Amino acid sequence: MYGGTVIDHFGINCADWERSKAFYDKVLGVLGYTRQMDFGVAIGYGTDGHPDFWIADMSTGAAAGPNREVHIAFAAKDAESVQAFFRTALALGVEPLHEPRLWPEYHENYYGAFVRDPDGNNVEAVFHGGLGVA
């Protein structure tokens, strides 16, 4: 849930998927972080069911190819803020990736919107309280 922090989570793409998984499993493990979600081509690390840091296999799916975009998600205080983020970004002429909606594949109250920033990065606003307020 929104805790007054600007960054909710972020992710990077990895060229050597197997080596990267082994590396992050071990180095984050000694810091007390574990795999919280694993989609096969993307793994989220964190604690208590909340993945804060993601790695993605850049040889498959949306991460495939030479573009090494960064994904960063900014914490929003409510669903209306997610919608305002999306409208504002579009007014600035950036590419929409995903309109504001619930993403139950992440969790039942995950409400987010995604755009591509002027440099090609995947930027998201997310609220963890569904369509209601915190």
From TrEMBL:
<keyword id="KW-0223">Dioxygenase</keyword>
<protein>
    <submittedName>
        <fullName>Glyoxalase/bleomycin resistance protein/dioxygenase</fullName>
    </submittedName>
</protein>
<dbReference type="InterPro" id="IPR004360">
    <property type="entry name" value="Glyas_Fos-R_dOase_dom"/>
</dbReference>
<keyword id="KW-0560">Oxidoreductase</keyword>
<dbReference type="InterPro" id="IPR037523">
    <property type="entry name" value="VOC_core"/>
</dbReference>
<feature type="domain" description="VOC">
    <location>
        <begin position="6"/>
        <end position="128"/>
    </location>
</feature>
<dbReference type="GO" id="GO:0051213">
    <property type="term" value="F:dioxygenase activity"/>
</dbReference>
<dbReference type="InterPro" id="IPR029068">
    <property type="entry name" value="Glyas_Bleomycin-R_OHBP_Dase"/>
</dbReference>
<dbReference type="Pfam" id="PF00903">
    <property type="entry name" value="Glyoxalase"/>
</dbReference>
